[in-house]
């Protein structure tokens, strides 16, 4: 055995040890997750398993595992021993667990195709009279990383909700055998919870306004009449679950008073936002480049310049042209406030600042800014990044890979025989296939990966800090699982496959990298489709 093969054998051995320990952490989290009443009893076990993982991963230089484990340990430190796990901390821990799960998938042993199971925070409950449809839905949901349970009676559903509050409930309005019995059951369930459970109602018999109003009043987010196929339902279930955690707003504060700036920073951080403060207006360009804020708060009057002048400088840069700017000042003259806003501002808050007013203003402006940005950079059908923004992100990741000396991969995916799907089943079913693949990719890739719809039935994936062999393993796993997914089309079902080409970054331009990935994709097509090819 030569030196290289010996090193490879050792690397695989170390990878197995870290992966095995990662599974111990994931299994311990599942114990906590399934029985919240006994969660505190598993805290020490969870902490010890994670600490061991971090030590292994650091020793064997498996960076992504070490970082994910370190994040989990920091969050566990905020969980007081012997106390219950609150929902906010549980959500943060779940995000960290999903990151660890993805790291384990990314760095799995080459000879071991087993992938650690990814668990959702809470299950989806299904209460349908049609048990066959309930079973089909559960199988489909499992493909998308959800845990789902079906119930045959209102009593069973009520008992399950008392033990574990679900993410959402899909229920027939007549569940229980009598008219609107399902709605009555949901009304009873909602009374037991401080925050309502999102409900998706289905009905084969009654779509009247009276029934719809009754359903809406007890938390009904959707009402399907007549009943729809599993594909549409899963898209809605995905919408009303918390799989996609809302990122905190990034707020840049410029105030020449350090005391006022620190106060603002404290208020923003308490509200769960990410704040960056500067007190020197001359630092604004550097702060914009480094922090990339979503919202900017400017003091109106500062030594050497005004907030209005700074706003004009900010607006001269295209990428910050639509970022909301909020002025702060003791100025109470309404005409002067309106004049200030006409020079690049969006809102005006009068000092002393009311924290509640500030947070409400930021949330309102932030939501609108994100919605407008999404219209500009995302594909309307799938919600993925559009072609232009995907290439912009690739350019950014190339810069980051060069700075950090890290690997980078770019993958192109093309759905096989997609024209045949449209011709056979119609364009609405074809659109649903595109959405199902986009959802599938989002469920199985890391948050740090970027997914775009390149055009038509083509998708592009940017995989930072990923070696070519690992990218191939991940996408092969996704390809195999996606090919098993049953695509519903009325009373028929069919399967869809995709081909993939992957290029790793070789100190080249983004255009050259895209061309290499495209040639690798073409090779996959020539090899018979439904396969993954690495570029030479």
Automatic annotation (TrEMBL):
<feature type="modified residue" description="4-aspartylphosphate">
    <location>
        <position position="299"/>
    </location>
</feature>
<dbReference type="InterPro" id="IPR001789">
    <property type="entry name" value="Sig_transdc_resp-reg_receiver"/>
</dbReference>
<keyword id="KW-0597">Phosphoprotein</keyword>
<dbReference type="InterPro" id="IPR050469">
    <property type="entry name" value="Diguanylate_Cyclase"/>
</dbReference>
<feature type="domain" description="Response regulatory">
    <location>
        <begin position="123"/>
        <end position="241"/>
    </location>
</feature>
<dbReference type="GO" id="GO:0000160">
    <property type="term" value="P:phosphorelay signal transduction system"/>
</dbReference>
<protein>
    <recommendedName>
        <fullName>diguanylate cyclase</fullName>
        <ecNumber>2.7.7.65</ecNumber>
    </recommendedName>
</protein>
<dbReference type="GO" id="GO:0005886">
    <property type="term" value="C:plasma membrane"/>
</dbReference>
<feature type="domain" description="GGDEF">
    <location>
        <begin position="406"/>
        <end position="536"/>
    </location>
</feature>
<dbReference type="InterPro" id="IPR029787">
    <property type="entry name" value="Nucleotide_cyclase"/>
</dbReference>
<dbReference type="GO" id="GO:1902201">
    <property type="term" value="P:negative regulation of bacterial-type flagellum-dependent cell motility"/>
</dbReference>
<dbReference type="InterPro" id="IPR000160">
    <property type="entry name" value="GGDEF_dom"/>
</dbReference>
<dbReference type="InterPro" id="IPR011006">
    <property type="entry name" value="CheY-like_superfamily"/>
</dbReference>
<dbReference type="GO" id="GO:0043709">
    <property type="term" value="P:cell adhesion involved in single-species biofilm formation"/>
</dbReference>
<dbReference type="Pfam" id="PF00990">
    <property type="entry name" value="GGDEF"/>
</dbReference>
<feature type="modified residue" description="4-aspartylphosphate">
    <location>
        <position position="172"/>
    </location>
</feature>
<feature type="domain" description="Response regulatory">
    <location>
        <begin position="250"/>
        <end position="366"/>
    </location>
</feature>
<dbReference type="InterPro" id="IPR043128">
    <property type="entry name" value="Rev_trsase/Diguanyl_cyclase"/>
</dbReference>
<dbReference type="Pfam" id="PF00072">
    <property type="entry name" value="Response_reg"/>
</dbReference>
<dbReference type="GO" id="GO:0052621">
    <property type="term" value="F:diguanylate cyclase activity"/>
</dbReference>
């Amino acid at each position: 055995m030569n030196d290289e093969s010996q090193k490879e054998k050792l690397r695989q051995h170390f990878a197995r040890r870290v992966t095995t320990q990662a599974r111990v952490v994931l299994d311990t989290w599942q114990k906590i997750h399934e029985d919240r009443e006994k969660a505190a009893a598993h805290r020490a076990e969870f902490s010890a398993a994670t600490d061991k993982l971090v030590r292994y991963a650091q020793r064997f230089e498996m960076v992504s595992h070490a970082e994910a484990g370190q994040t989990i340990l920091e969050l566990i430190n905020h969980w007081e021993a012997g106390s219950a796990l609150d929902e906010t901390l549980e959500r943060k821990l779940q995000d960290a667990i999903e990151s660890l799960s993805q790291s384990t998938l990314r760095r799995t042993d080459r000879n071991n195709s087993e992938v650690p199971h990814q668990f959702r925070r809470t299950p989806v409950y299904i209460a349908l009279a049609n048990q066959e449809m309930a079973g089909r839905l559960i199988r489909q949901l499992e493909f998308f990383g959800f845990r789902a349970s079906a119930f045959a009676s209102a009593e069973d559903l009520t008992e399950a909700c008392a033990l574990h509050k679900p993410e959402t409930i899909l229920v027939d309005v007549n569940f229980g055998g009598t008219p609107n019995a399902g709605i009555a059951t949901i009304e009873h369930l909602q009374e037991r919870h401080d925050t309502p459970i999102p409900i998706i109602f289905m009905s084969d018999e009654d779509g009247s306004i009276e029934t719809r109003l009754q359903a809406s009043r007890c938390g009904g987010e959707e009402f399907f009449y007549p009943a729809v196929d599993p594909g549409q339902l899963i898209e809605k279930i995905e919408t009303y679950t918390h799989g996609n955690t809302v990122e905190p707003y990034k707020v840049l504060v410029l105030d020449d008073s350090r005391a006022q700036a620190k106060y603002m920073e404290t208020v923003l951080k308490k509200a769960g936002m990410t704040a960056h403060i500067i007190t020197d207006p001359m630092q604004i360009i550097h702060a914009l480049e480094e922090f990339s804020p979503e919202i900017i708060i400017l003091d109106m009057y500062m030594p050497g310049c005004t907030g209005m002048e700074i706003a004009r400088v900010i607006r001269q840069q295209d990428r910050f042209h639509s970022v909301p700017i909020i002025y702060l000042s003791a100025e109470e003259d309404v005409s002067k406030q309106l004049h200030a806003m006409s020079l690049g501002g969006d809102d005006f808050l009068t000092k002393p600042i009311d924290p509640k007013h500030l947070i409400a203003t930021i949330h309102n402006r932030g939501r609108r800014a994100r919605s407008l940005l999404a219209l500009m950079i995302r594909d309307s059908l799938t919600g993925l990044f559009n072609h232009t923004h995907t290439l912009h992100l690739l350019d950014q990741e190339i810069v980051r890979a060069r700075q950090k000396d890290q690997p980078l991969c770019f993958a192109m995916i093309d759905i096989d025989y997609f024209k045949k799907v449209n011709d056979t089943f119609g364009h609405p079913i074809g659109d649903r296939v595109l959405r199902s693949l986009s959802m599938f990719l989002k469920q199985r890739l890391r948050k740090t990966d970027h997914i775009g719809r390149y055009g038509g039935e083509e998708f592009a994936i940017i995989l930072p800090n990923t070696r070519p062999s690992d990218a191939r393993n991940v996408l092969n796993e996704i390809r195999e699982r996606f090919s098993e997914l049953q695509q519903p089309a009325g009373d028929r079902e069919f399967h869809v496959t995709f081909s993939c080409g992957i290029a790793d970054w070789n100190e080249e331009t983004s255009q050259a990298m895209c061309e290499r990935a495209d040639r690798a994709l073409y090779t996959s097509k020539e090899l018979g489709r439904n396969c993954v090819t690495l570029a030479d």
